[in-house]
Amino acid sequence: MGPPPSDSAALRPRPFRVTRARRELADVWTLELEASDGGGPVTFRPGQFTMVYVFGIGEVPLSISGDPAKPDVLVHTVRAVGAVTRAVCAAKKDDVLGVRGPYGAGWPVEAALGRDVVIMAGGLGLAPLRPFVRAVMAQRRAFGRVVLLIGARTPASLLFAREMARWRARFDLDVRVTVDAGDAAWKGDVGVITTLVPRATFDPGTTTAFVCGPEVMMRFAAADLVHRGVPPALVFLSMERNMKCAVGVCGHCQFGPAFVCRDGPVLSYARIEASLRIREV
Amino acid sequence: MDTIDDLLSRHPFFTGLKPEYLALIAGCGQNVHFAPGAYLLREGGTADQFFAIRGGSVAVETYVPSRGAVTLQTLGEGEILGWSWLFPPYVWQFDARAREEVRATAFDGTCLRTKCDADPALGYELMKRLARLVSGRLEAARRQLLDVYGPAPVR
Predict the structure, then answer these.
(1) What is the CATH number for B62?
(2) ipTM of the complex
(3) Considering only CB atoms, which chain A residues are within 8 Å of B152?
(4) Is there a domain that residue B102 lies in?
(5) Which residue in B46, B94, B36 sits closest to B70, CA to CA?
(6) Number of H helices, E strands in chain A
(7) Contact A191 B150 (CB under 8 A)
């Protein structure tokens, strides 16, 4: 839940300095930011987002892709698709951006305690899930099997390749990666991410699932997880909508009866399944 | 040592099949191994088999001029490769290549078709399972066509 709308400070961007900018893919950058107003770090829960303001251009909601155990560094992984995100991606070391937040409901880690965990990340959806993966691995013994299913368009569009290699080297994390279109050098699987659901080893009845990616991918993924036996109330999706105020006032991000900025962005499949089937919601 | 019946009873495709059907199907099967790089089947070849994969990884490929072999899909443990043996003209539509050591049970298509014709209940059971498999592959191919990771909305 975000701060109350009456709190005007919640709507005021704070200055954050870019301390590092790293190109992840041709059109995707990761920025590391530090508060430059002495107001302290952004303590966040995995799955939350901030509103990032590029002065003179505009504001955009960005999910946090850093480590929740290291709140001093605010990390965002961004694809350059429009005027604001292109400007965010063009930011250089020592540039200053405005940041407000964090906002929204994150991934409910507590809903997975003692259970098997399936994490499905499609494309850039791995960015909002990375803090969650790190949080789960930081308390690995609190969970049963942990399965990470990753899908991307091509091998060249896989995010966080080095970190992914570290995850794959672990014996307590089952990582499966598939691409829609492989190339001659690709040694992983080829096929859509949902083909990994029946292949993965987990006990559906005692599984909590966390899914992030393009909405159509999440719709199929959630349906397949439920078909395999995961309870709909324990399949969580991170929804993307056109968030403006980020505190549940303006209504831009309304999705059925929910405001994605305030009630989400993470929502259970049980709650939004019907809305997902309504076109243009 | 496991018999083919034992191996099949543990393969997801055959789960829940009556033991007598399992025995009939196993009678058409033999265990096979493929070294990395070996072809399980070649496009244009006679489709007289199908494979229940028990281990390893298989790439379903087609050759595209100027691009070489393009992988359309990968299959692994617990999955089935090949259904062209079911329908005339019984010709493979794609290549299938072992990406690593592959263990599988290969079934003689003619043998199975003969048994299915002789016992329609067995045939119906097998066809239901194969239809589910084909339907799943079709659905996956359609999802692949969606190119869901394509350009994102502008913001």
Answers:
(1) 2.60.120.10
(2) 0.86
(3) 79, 81, 124, 214
(4) yes
(5) B94
(6) 6, 15
(7) no
CATH code of domain A8-103:
2.40.30.10
Pick the CATH number of A109-277 from 3.40.50.80, 3.60.150.10, 3.40.190.80, 3.40.50.300: 3.40.50.80
In 3-state terms, what secondary structure has residue A147? strand
Q: Is residue B108 part of a domain?
A: yes
Give the distance from residue A7's alpha carbon to the nearest chain B alpha carbon, in angstroms: 27
DSSP-based three-state secondary structure for A281: coil
Distance CA B61, CA B65 (A): 13
Query: What is the amino acid identity at position A46?
Result: P
CB contacts of A199 in chain B (<8 Å) are: 76-79
* Contact call for A82 and B99, based on CB within 8 A: no
Please report the residues numbered 206 through 245 in chain A whose beta carbons come closer than 8 angstroms to any beta carbon of chain B.
213-214, 216-217, 220, 242
Query: Could you list the pLDDT tens digit for every one of the 281 residues in chain A?
Result: 445 555 666 788 999 999 999 999 999 999 999 999 888 888 999 999 999 999 999 999 999 999 999 989 999 999 999 999 999 999 999 999 999 989 999 999 999 999 999 999 999 999 999 999 999 999 999 999 999 999 999 999 999 999 999 999 999 999 999 999 988 788 889 999 999 999 999 999 999 999 999 989 999 999 999 999 999 999 999 988 888 888 888 888 888 888 888 888 999 999 988 888 888 77
CA A157 to chain B, closest CA, distance in angstroms equals 9
Question: What's the gap in Å between the CA of A194 and the closest CA on chain B?
Answer: 8
